[in-house]
From TrEMBL:
Membrane topology: Peripheral membrane protein
PROSITE patterns: ABC_TRANSPORTER_1, ABC_TRANSPORTER_2
The protein, known as: ABC transporter ATP-binding protein
Domain of life of the organism encoding this protein: Bacteria
Source organism (scientific name): Jiangella ureilytica
GO biological process: one example: response to antibiotic
Compartment annotation: Cell membrane
Length: 309
């Protein structure tokens, strides 16, 4: 990976009237990496990305994309940067995918072959105009449009939203191939497992600021607690279990009959838990000790229950 970041944002602020969409956000994207920006609806992800793309101007702060200022150096950046907007916004609805992609290819010096690209993103030789395509097909066209010019850097706003599971996996494979070819990928997503599996670097944003960032492993290992999961009859007395466990343990019934204990797990804690179950005539089914997932960390950071991602 090159030392110069592909994207560098310092103290970015963007307001819409009284709404602070972005409120002092700073981040760096390493060249050749996949960076996932996650956060609840309205967190400021799209606004940040659109400023990087040159579509919006910041109120203050500094943004550098491939060392350039996107609000001034758009002409120099356009051939080098691919952009996928949410739901393929901005495409002419009467165009067919191949027409649109061929048109975009002509704007670039060394474009990809359009037929090959359409096949790679799962469009085959789909001939219907864009307005007749399904949401998932439009997503694929938008992804192909971002890639056709062989960009060094791509910004993808929710690239797998609305895709079926097979198409989502195939998109992940494509993004991993791009990274192997040295392309920098910045994406937003509401799928925390997508960020966890795919991204080298995850940035959690809320209320226009970065709450936490790091590799998925760093973000989850920074939390000392592990989690024990088990199944049993619904509506167990979690307060009684909680009282039996050491201070700091958190017990909750996630869904009826599915329990989670978040704590520093050691053999003694496990023994206390199973003794409590034995004393209450409960067979703890599927008992598992595991690390907390990125989703656990995310929900804790943004405040569980405040907003569904
Ligand atoms: N053009 C605009 N005019 C006024 N307010 C706007 C405008 N664009 C965005 N906002 C507001 O700025 C805030 C951040 O929006 P943004 O689209 O950046 O969030 P997001 O994190 O991308 O959300 P989502 O996950 O729902 O796409 C929201 O409160 C939104 O309503």
């Amino acid at each position: 990976m090159s030392a110069a970041p592909a994207v560098e944002i310092s103290s970015l602020v963007k307001r819409y009237g009284t709404v602070s969409a972005v409120d002092g956000l700073s981040l760096r994207v390493a060249a050749g990496s996949i960076t996932a920006v996650i956060g609840p609806n309205g967190a400021g992800k799209t606004t940040t990305i659109e400023i990087c793309e040159g579509f919006r101007r910041p109120d203050s702060g500094v943004v550098r994309v491939l060392g350039l200022d996107p609000s001034r150096d758009g002409a120099a950046l356009r051939p080098r940067v691919g952009v996928m907007l949410q739901e393929g916004a901005g495409f002419y609805p009467g165009a067919r995918p191949a027409e649109l992609l061929t048109h975009l290819a002509r704007l670039h010096a060394h474009p990809l072959d359009v037929a090959m690209l359409m096949s790679r993103v799962g469009l085959g030789d789909l001939r219907a105009p864009l307005r007749r395509l399904s949401g998932g097909e439009r997503q694929r066209v938008a992804l192909a449009a971002a890639l056709v010019g062989r960009p060094e850097l791509v910004f993808l706003d929710e690239p797998t939203a609305g895709l079926d599971p097979a198409a989502r996996r195939s998109t992940w494979a494509l993004l991993a191939e791009l990274r192997s070819a040295g392309v920098t990928v910045v994406l937003t997503t509401h799928l925390i497992d997508e960020a966890e599996r795919l991204a080298d670097h995850v940035v959690i944003v809320d209320a226009g600021r970065v709450l936490a960032e790091g590799t998925p492993a760093e973000l989850t290992s920074g939390v000392s607690d592990d989690v024990i999961r088990f199944g049993g009859p619904p509506r167990l007395d979690v307060a009684s279990l909680r009282a039996a466990l050491p201070d700091g343990a958190v017990v909750r019934e996630v869904t009826p009959g599915a329990y989670e204990v978040a704590a520093v797990v050691d053999p003694r804690l496990l023994a206390t838990l199973t003794s409590w179950c034995a004393a209450n005539d409960i067979l703890a089914e599927g008992l598992q000790v595991g690390h907390r997932s990125l989703e656990d960390v995310y929900l804790e950071l943004i405040g569980a229950g405040r907003s569904a991602p």
